[in-house]
Amino acid sequence: MRVHNQVAQGMTKKSSLEPGTARAQGPATRDVLLTDKHAAPSPLLEESPQFLGDEDIPFERYTSQDYFDREMKSLWPRTWQWACREEHLADTGDVQVYDIGRYSIIITRVDEDTIKAYLNTCTHRGTRLLDGEGSHYSQGFTCPFHGWSWHLDGAIRNIPGRWDFPHVTDATHGLQEVLCQRWGGFVFINMDRDAQPLEAYLGVMTEHFDAFPLDRRRIKLHVQKRLPANWKAAQEAFMEAYHNFETHDSPHGANAQYDIFGKYVSRFIHNLGSYSPQALSDYPGDKWRDPPMTEQEMLAGLAVEGRTLAEGETAREVAAQTIRENLGAELGVDLSATSDSIILDSIEYHLFPNMFFFPGIVVPMVYRFRPNGMDVDSCIFDLMLMEPLPDDEEHPEPPEPIHLSVEQSYTEVEELAWLAPVYDEDTGNLQLQTQGFKNAFKGMTLGNYQESRIRRIYLTQEEFMQQAEERS
Ligand code: FES
Ligand SMILES: [Fe+2]
After folding, report:
1. Residue ranges near ligand 2 (ion) with Cβ within 5 Å
2. The domain 81-190 is classified under which CATH number: 2.102.10.10, 3.40.50.300, 3.40.50.720, 3.30.1330.30?
3. Ligand of minimum distance to the alpha carbon of 127
4. Which of 91, 290, 316, 367 is deepest in the core (most CB within 10 A)?
5. What are the pLDDT digits (tens) for 408-465?
6. CATH tag, 29-71+215-289+334-471
7. What sign does the dihedral 23-209-104-401 (CA atoms) show?
8. Which pLDDT tens digit goes with each residue over 185-198?
């Protein structure tokens, strides 16, 4: 009878727990934010978890040429994507070339207020106009084949042998313009002339980033690396903190928070300088929980040395204050009102399909993952570190990207410091995952909460491509 009761109780308990509602033990991210001395801004206190199902995701999504071709046809030419920063186009005539798969876009500053984007293709017989990616200066564009040329605003400047082309006008043969809109200092393009405005697409991000504006950041470092995985697998390696324990040998992130805001935006927040031994109670080994790390040890883990905590002080508050003062002075930026969470935490917003924005100060990244040309199994990972810019300063000239091949280690980039081995660890997994995808009978299984953002992208992408296919 007693056994029966236990089973019955167990079953009741199990069925009352809706899928996706289970959480790690110990304090939640929000609990930590609520005890911070410098209070977190309200967007960070919002929680928006979503359970989106638990079915496997087919590996073909990452390996199949057909799926890749569908993306080339129905995803990339129809979606918003950041192509460069405004500071890449500081002066009239500055030009940036952005390639995505088989597409190439020219972005240029036409005058002080106007930035425009065009297909990088001659309207005569289709020759690519500007070779290579990256920045140039130009007074206009000239095709290397027969010398047709255009002004910065896309209007025809000259057609050699004009007498033979009475049927050619600006309306028919000006450069082919694509949508170009700006947000947070980023220049976005969209090849779909009927696309919804960028602002609507950004959803909560426009409001959330009011508290931590990215237009007042400068690019401190830009690394562009080839990764040995499909662009989706590569970006998904950065969307959960679940792998931290095994891959990075780190106790942080077991109780990270995962939010989904509509179809295009998701977020994680994972606290640094505070971890809960309870949250790790179902991970193997006892390295991090027995005995639990002290606040003093956590402070050392945040690279604050030589400071003994007083009674009642926490690692988070002291680390945040130290960074606030030291980094604020170094950068010439007033961080006195910046919350502990923005200073310390890994806060990552993802914008569909392939963009990441971190509002943090110690973790100040921007990522973008693109197919590497037309190769299914590799991608280009743009990683930028974005430093706060003093109020009265103009944006300096941005640094040229540092290019790393698949084989090169991030440790070759000195400025990445402690981040370099972390990125190397993530890259190591990608190679193995790409191999494993092709050796599998079943699909990818996801955690209901910690990996929900990956499922959100999957569902959004399926719907997005299906709608595009119906329209065409
Ligand atoms: S193809 Fe460009 S000018 Fe002829
Ligand atoms: Fe990682």
Report:
1. 426
2. 2.102.10.10
3. 1
4. 316
5. 999 999 999 999 999 999 999 999 999 999 998 889 999 999 999 999 999 999 999 9
6. 3.90.380
7. negative
8. 999 999 999 999 99
